[in-house]
Amino acid sequence: MRVRFAPSPTGYLHIGNIRTALFNWMYARRHKGSFVLRIEDTDLERSKKEYEERILYDMRWLGIEADEDVEKGGPYAPYRQSERLEIYRDFLEKLTRQGRAYRCYCTEEELELRRKVALSAGRPPAYDNRCRGLTNTQQARFESEGRKPSWRFVLPQKMVRFEDEIRGEIEFDSSLFGDPVIMKQDGIPTYNFSCVVDDALMRISLVLRGEGHISNTPIQILLFEALGFEPPAFAHMSHTKGLSKRLGSRSIKDFEEEGYLPVAILNYAALLGWSPKEGGEIFDPRTPKIYDQFDISHLSKAASNFDEPKFEHICGQHIRRLTDEQLCKSVQPYLPATLSEEKRKKIALASRYYLIRLKDVETTLPIFLGGEIQLDSDALKTLTSDAAKNSFKTLLDAIITAQIPSDREKLLSVVNNVSLQTGVKVSKLFLMLRAALTGKTQGPEIHLILDALDTDTIKNRLEKAKHICEEGKR
Ligand code: GLU
Q1: 6 Cα: distance to centroid of ligand 1 (angstroms)
Q2: Fewest CB atoms less than 10 Å from the CB: which of 99, 224, 316, 387?
């Protein structure tokens, strides 16, 4: 079993590309096959080295590296199409010798004009194959006019049927297509040609890709046949909606820089059109328990939807699953190096439940630095309520008397006592503490905040809050 991911290095990878890469990777792992990364860089103007390097980097970072690629090499190297031009030219020559490819001298302008005329006359705009039967003399005349040929494939005209492993039988009438260009004037192959030559030579057994390529498949099958190769199996995944929006349009590079966890990105990408029967919704697709359940025929035929809240939920869940040690280590780059390691650890652990991505620690950070904090309007409302007026001083005294308990149980028992004394609910008292210590009404657990802050800062914040309670204003 051999599968491949064949991106063009004309931009950064997005979650949609990663879904294709991941499903191919999972398929290869499940069937103990090989996963090939082929760089399709035949668009010389738009392809960039930087993008190619980033594709390799992203796949490594995500932990779904290919078994054969431009860096590792492999039995069917090279894996970069720009290094395979000779190979395509040889196959073109073979097809030309067999009369299955021919020179076409039509210019872009002529083709465009004919397309327009056909459309306005209500005819299909396909190429009319007019250069198919050119004699040597006619060809020589075009050459003498300074025209340069491109090469077209003599497309057999028939019904092409194939069994798509996701969608079932698909058929096309190839007589509706014109003969496709397979090699451009500059000697660079078109996508359909280089893709078929490479899939054949690289012994790809299944082509698993996006549904946008369904209409290329009949041409590719006819090319495989003309070249004397058995076509691989095909499976076309459904489209994902919503990838142009805020999060869906971010590149994997952006996600990495902002501290999204690779496992979370893969988990979410896997859910775009698939879900394991066992293992729930939060999982690591790189584990055998999950990829051994991967079956192409279970991929959804319906479009999937990039659901931002769900993506963020999954990201947060994976942060919660990190061990304390993993979390502290991962969050380090987002915290000031000037803070002690001890302090950074405490901040990381206290922030855990508020992180969607590691960078979010920057928003909880101000709470943990010494100095004053600003109260938002909800915090101010909490501290100026009647309940606060009647209980905050008692609460503050109890906390100080108990030497600022940072143990959850101890703190709870102190707050319980204050509740009995004052008749104010425990949850309200905690809310006051939160407002006083963080300036907000939501955030990390109070005992963790007490643990991470130094005594003076705690005392100052509580004292300031007491004044606010007493004066009823800031
Ligand atoms: N380079 C093509 C693309 O990025 C590959 C398509 C395919 O998988 O055949 O769309």
Answers
A1: 5
A2: 99
List the chain residues with pLDDT less than 50: 474
Joined together, the tokens standing for residue 64 give 């779904």
- The CATH number that domain 2-81+240-305 falls under is 3.40.50.620
| Global pTM value | 0.91
- Cβ of 202 closer than 6 Å to ligand 1, yes or no, is no
Residue ranges covered by each domain of the chain: 2-81+240-305, 84-237, 328-367, 370-471
Among 20, 191, 204, residue to substitute to test ligand 1 (most atoms within 8 Å of Cβ): 191
Give the distance (Å) from ligand 1 centre to CA of residue 76. Answer: 18
The class of domain 370-471 in CATH terms is mainly alpha
Of the residues 8, 20, 47, 206, which should be mutated to test ligand 1's pocket, given the most ligand atoms within 8 Å of the CB?
8
Ligand 1: centre distance to CA 387 (Å) = 64
Query: What's the pLDDT tens digit per position in 250-282?
Result: 999 999 999 999 999 999 999 999 999 998 999
Give me the count of residues in the chain.
474
Largest CA distance in the chain: 108
Whole-number Cα distances in Å, 13 to 22, 43, 266, 351: 12, 17, 13, 30
State the closest ligand 1 atom to the C-alpha of 20, by its place in the atom list counted from 1: 8
pLDDT for the residue numbered 117: 94
Residue tagged 């359909």 (tokens):
192
With the C-alpha atoms ordered 275, 280, 281, 286, is the resulting torsion angle positive or negative? Answer: negative
84-237: CATH number: 3.40.50.620
Q: 443 is written with which tokens?
A: 């955030």
Domains 2-81+240-305 and 370-471 share a fold: no
Q: Whose CA is nearest to atom 4 of ligand 1?
A: 7
Does ligand 1 have an atom closer than 6 angstroms to the CB of 16?
Answer: no
Own/partner long-range contacts of 120-128 (Cβ < 8 Å, ≥24 apart): 124/176, 126/176, 126/177, 126/178, 127/152, 127/178, 127/179, 127/180, 128/178
